[in-house]
Amino acid sequence: GRLSLGVFVVVITVQSIFLHGNVRMTFGPARWLVATPHFHHWHHAREPHAYNTNYANEFPVLDLLFGTFYLPAHRWPAQYGVDDVEPAGYLRQLAWSFRAGCRQGSTTP
C-alpha cells in the first residue's frame, strides 16, 4: 500500500543521491550485486570504451547478463558528459537524445 510506495520512493531517492556522489569506495564483492558510485560514474564517462555501458540502476548483474558491464579496477573516469552542447528548450532537449549520434552502436555517447 502507501507505506510500501513511500519506502520505495525513499530508498530509490537515497540510492540515486548515493550513485551520483563522489564516494571513492569500491565495495568489494558487493559491487556485483548492488550499483555503486564507481560503477555508475562509468555510465557517465566521456571515454569511448565506456560508451553504452552500465545501464542498470540497482543491480549490475543485469549489465553482466546483457554484455554492457564496464568497471575498470582502481580507475575512475577522467571526464564526464558529452561533447555536444544541448539545445535550449525543454522539447528540443527531449528530442536531442534521439539524434543519430545516440543510437545503438554509436561511437559517441
Polypeptide structure, described:
It is a single chain. By secondary structure, this protein is an all-alpha fold. It is built from 4 helices and no strands. It has helices spanning 2-19, 37-43, 61-66, 90-96. The N and C termini lie far apart (39 Å).
Determine the fraction of residues in helical runs and give it as a percent range: 25-40%
Mean pLDDT: 85
Q: Quick one: overall form?
A: globular
User: How far is the N terminus from the C terminus?
Assistant: 39 Å
Strand content: under 5%
Rg over alpha carbons: 16 Å
Q: Spans of 5+ residues with little confidence (pLDDT < 50)?
A: none
Q: What would you call the quaternary organization?
A: single chain
Class derived from helix and strand content: mainly alpha
Give the helices and strands as they follow along the chain.
HHHH
- Write down the domain tally: 1
Largest sheet: none
Number of alpha- plus pi-helical segments: 4
Count the beta strands: 0
Can you give keywords for this protein?
109 residues; mainly alpha; 4 helices
In short:
The chain is mainly alpha-helical and 109 residues long. It has helices at 2-19, 37-43, 61-66, 90-96.
How does the SSE layout of this entry go?
Elements lengths: L1 H18 L17 H7 L17 H6 L23 H7 L13
